[in-house]
Amino acid sequence: MTKYEELVDAVHESEILYITTASSRIPAQSIRVGKEYGIFFNDSAFDTSAERYVALAHEKAHCDTGALYTIESPIFERERYENQAWKRTINVLMPFDEMKRVFDTCIYVDGLDLYEFAEKLEVTPEFAQRAIEHYHKQGYSW
Question: Which of 36, 41, 43, 135 is most buried by its number of CB atoms within 10 A?
């Protein structure tokens, strides 16, 4: 079972309503109605399991943290909630100790092979880079 499939199971087991959709306009969206959370998710909008995994984890992070906003929300509020959800996503998908363990296996003479690193963690290279930058800003050392 892939990490993405495990995450889908975890979302189903949580109190977050998981709704599959065919919307091409919004591939993934978190919502809150009262005290209930839900995720609209279009699996076919993503090309790889890693893309689906990161997107679903990010939407779940919005629900887990309550970091949701409306279309009318000011840009600073949206950015704050997006940053909050991304931090949660990084901490859940790529805890530093696991990331460091895998990181050490992907270092070569010419540096880090970001694509191999991401593949081993079943995430996208863009997300792996975001996580590296996040931990670097936090003062973690490799």
Answer: 41
Measuring CA to CA, which residue among 121, 116, 117, 106 is closest to residue 53?
121
Distance (Å, whole) CA 121 – CA 115: 10
> What is the maximum span of the chain, computed from C-alpha positions, in angstroms?
54
pLDDT truncated to tens, each residue of the chain (142 aa)? 888 899 999 998 988 999 999 877 889 999 999 889 999 999 999 999 999 999 999 999 999 999 999 889 999 999 999 999 999 999 999 999 999 999 989 989 888 999 999 999 999 999 999 999 999 999 998 7
**Alpha carbon 127 to its chain's center:** 8
Q: Report the run of H or E that residue 108 belongs to, with start and end.
A: strand 107-108
**Which amino acid is present at 46?**
F
Domain ranges of the chain: 1-93, 95-142
> How much is the CA Rg of the chain, to the nearest whole Å?
16
Quick one: tokens of 24?
A: 């091409």
